[in-house]
Amino acid sequence: MANKIKNEFVAYSEPAIRTNLSIVEYCRTSVAAVSGCTAGVLGLTGLYGALFFVLAVTTFWFMLIFKAGIDSWKKYFISRKSLLLNGIFGHFFTYILCWTFIYGMVHVY
Amino acid sequence: MPATFVHRSILTIGFLSLFHAAYSAAQHRSYLRLNDLDFTHLPLDIFIQALGALFIIMYGVLNITGDFKEIKASAELENKSWETFRNIPSFYVFNHRGGKSPAVTKTSLEEIE
Q1: Quick one: pLDDT at residue B102?
Q2: Of A25, A10, A31, residue with least CA distance to A78
Q3: Where are the membrane-spanning stretches (chain A) (predicted)?
Q4: Please, which pLDDT band fits residue B38 given cuts at 50, 70 and 90?
Q5: What are the pLDDT digits (tens) for A38-97?
Q6: ipTM of the complex
Q7: What is the DSSP letter of A23?
Q8: How far is CA B41 from CA A42, A51, B14, B44, B55, in A?
Q9: Closest-CA residue to A40 (of B82, B43, B42)
């Protein structure tokens, strides 16, 4: 019981959390843009594009956890799920922008 | 480890590869257009190259941003010694009685040397 109470109060360092999240945000924005470009190159249309986005983001999530360490990710992040889902719609719009742009550049013109 | 030259080159290679795949896809489209063929799917090699470039760029971006920091508040303090925390500059005393003491003066110190 005493051990349980002790574990509930963990002091986190805010600058460290902020640094980690900004690194993740930077990476995820780039991944959204680049996967959009790839989807445009591949000529995906409709739901396949959305599926590709889900695939790319999930793959990147696994890579991220792998980088932090499969056992030791708790040292760097509070929650794994928020790494996958935070701001996913914002990234989806970035993805759509790049997707349509590159699709137009490669396949239409 | 911070971003090294290797990671930068990996990222550059990825972007070049993606650009090359895009250019190949555009050429494939123009080939189809000239021969009045319909677009069904890309050739497999372009497909694989584009996907491979995506993964290479992901890897490069992930490694170029640098390491994560430990979020435990005590993580940074563990490497520091007690002397670092005890050191409080506001409590430094320079004007103490040692200067007035006849036993240890500047000249006597020089004589000792």
Answers
A1: 67
A2: A10
A3: 48-70, 82-106
A4: confident
A5: 999 998 888 999 999 999 999 999 998 988 888 888 888 888 888 888 889 999 999 999
A6: 0.85
A7: H
A8: 8, 17, 23, 9, 21
A9: B42
Output the CA torsion B76→B79→B81→B82 (10° steps).
40
The answer to whether the pTM exceeds 0.90 is no
Query: Residue B113: enclosing H or E segment and its boundaries?
Result: none
Provide, as residue numbers in chain A, all residues whose Cβ is less than 8 Å from the Cβ of B73: 11-13
A23 CA to chain B: closest CA distance, Å?
A: 6
SS3 label, residue B75: coil
Which residue, among B15, B19, B3, B11, has the nearest Cα to B60 in the 3D structure?
B11
Q: Do B61 and A16 touch (CB under 8 A)?
A: no
What is the C-alpha R_g of chain B?
A: 33
Q: Which has more pLDDT, B54 or A109?
A: B54
Is the Cβ–Cβ distance between B46 and B26 less than 8 Å?
Answer: no
The identity of residue B6, as a single letter, is: V
Task: Give contacts of A35 with chain B, Cβ < 8 Å.
Answer: 54
Angle between helices A88-103 and A14-42 (to 10 degrees): 30
Q: Which position has the token pair 């090359």?
A: B20
B74 contacts in chain A (CB < 8 Å): 11
Q: Locate B60 and state its tokens.
A: 């490069």
Helix (H) or strand (E) holding A67: helix A47-68
Nearest partner of A94 among A22, A21, A26, judged by Cα: A26
